[in-house]
Structures are given as structure tokens and as C-alpha cells.
# Entry
Amino acid sequence: MRVAAIFCAAVGVYDLLYVYFILSGGPAIGPRHLVLFPDFLVFDAAVHAWREGKLALIYDVDAFSAFQNAGLHFRPFLYPPIWLLMLLPLGAIAVGKTYAVFMTATAAIATALEGWRDWPGWLAVVVSPAAAWVVLSGQNTFLSLGLFYGGLHLLPRAPIAAGVLLGLLAYKPQIWVLVPLALLAARQWKTLAVTLATVAVLALTSLALFGLDFWRGFFDAARIASSAAATERMFDQMHVQMTTLLAAARMAGLSTGVAGLLQIAGALLAVAAVWFAFRRHGPGTAQTAVLAAATFLVSPYTLNYDLLLLMPAVVALHRRGAAQGFLPGERILHALLWLLPTLGWMLNQLGLPVIPLVVLLFGATAWKRAGGHAKTA
# Structure
């Protein structure tokens, strides 16, 4: 654990300096960002479009990208209307201050729901390369992390509160998609019912506020985003940050059809792993790690900043390994996964897309620990 702490501290100092220099215009000690917090600019623009009565623009990729006027030609809003509903309180102040409020609030929510359980471990999470990417992109991954782990931790003692948190997570479908399956497998009927009820309340509230046409626009945008042309455009723009089997196969030179089959195979494996992990053993630390890893195998659209969702699971399993003995190679795997948001970005540029393989190996070690029959070294 002392070695792990020194390792995290050394990389964490670099991450803090890197973020500070990017935001302050200091010397370049890592990849440059042409636009600061570009993903948050998308969120902010969606709120302003609603305030200006231009709601129809939001799911029109080209028109909405032009509306943002950020010098970027592909800035879609690919979230359901419930995310815009949750963003509305942020539209009253200038974008820089709004960004600061957003990042502070989401990090505070994650700390309140997850971080307080283990302050040294949480420090390793917030100085990780994944956290640096979240801050620089202005993403909502801290909020996803808090709702995901907070909800799962509350399952045994507060199933209703757990259901509310896990229902709120539905604002990001690619992260939420396996949560109902895990609850169903674990026979957490009350939490599952509250989760679905929370989603229904959010959907109906956004329907009442934004109207039926806006929801139709979302489903049309989702259909268009899954088309071959849109997938190709997204791959061209973002492949160096992508973490999916689909993107890895494309970067490795495989055809679109073969890449799609690999993605489907990974999704089926993820579904089976989550079902059997929660069905046989119920909720627990290792099962949560299985669910987190499976999320990255089932979704065809996740980026390197989303890997922050794995970091609490990495810390938890590293602590478990330190107490019970590590699996062969497990410590190296944890260090590699912790570095992966930046390391994977570099390797993607070199045509070496290893991120899904590392996530798969982490999921396999979590599966062994969930079964309680892992052989440690």
C-alpha cells in the first residue's frame, strides 16, 4: 500500500500541474487542448438554446454545433431530455463561472456519496489521470460516479434511497444500461421499482416542460447516431479517446462488420457476467467492480474520461488484495488501469488500442474475487 500511495502521489502531482498549466496557459507538459472544457460548452449551449426558445436546434447536430460557435464542427448533444432538465439551474451565469460551479458541485456530490468512505482511497481517485481528463473536458463523470457507487452502497440498508440515486443515473444511458439487470439479478425488487419510478418521474417532468416533439427529436437523433455514416463521423472525430471494443477493432484495421460483431460479443459477455455475479452472490465490492467493467464492454460509445467510473473499484480491489493477497499480475493491472485514460489515449494514436483488453482483464479479476475462490499470490 505504501508503494501504491507513492505511485499515485507522483502521478497525481503531475496531473495537478498538467491541469493547472492548461487552465492558466502555462508550459505544455502533456497533450494540448484547443478548446477548454469542450463537453461542458455543449451542456451550457443546450441550456441557452432552451432559454432562447431554440429547443429544436439541440438534436440537430450541424445546427447545434454552429449555434455553439466554438470553432468545432461536431459538438452533438446526445443525451436524453432528462439531462437537460437537470442542467437548467446552471444557465443563469457566465460560462466560466457556470463551469466552476458544475465541476465543484459534481465533485462534491461524488465525495458525499462515495469519497467519505475512504479518504486516502478517494484522494487516489481525484488525482488520477481520469479525473484530469474529466476536469479538462468539463464532463459529468463525477456525478455518474457518485450516483453509481452511492446507489449500490445503499442497497443493503436504504433500498429506496438507492433506487432514487440509480434512477437519476439514467441521464447517461450508456452508463446506466446494466443497472436494472443487476438489480433484477440480485432480486432487489424494491430498489428496482424505485429506480424505474424515478426514471419515469424525470421523463414525465421533462415531457411536460419540453414537449413531446423534443422527445421525438431525441429518439430521431439516437437513431441517426447509430447509423453507419454517423458512427464513421464520430469515430473520425474521437477515436483517440474511445474505449470501446467497436473502436478498438476499427483502429486495429478490422472491417466495420467484424468490429460490430466484436462489440455484440462483448455486450453479451457483459450481460452474462453481471447477471451471474449478482444472481449468485448478490451486491458486494467485487460485484460492483464486475458491473463497472461490464459497462465499458456493453456500450459502443464511451471515452477515456468515463474510465473515472472504474477508479473506486480499482482502489477497493487493491485494498482487498493488500489484505487477502493479490492475484498473479493484479497489482500491475491496477496500476495500468489507473494510468489508462492517458496511456490509452497515447496508444490509440499509435494504433495500439489496448483499453478494452485491460478493462476485460480487470473484470475477470473482479469476477474471480466475487466468486470467493481466487488463488492469490
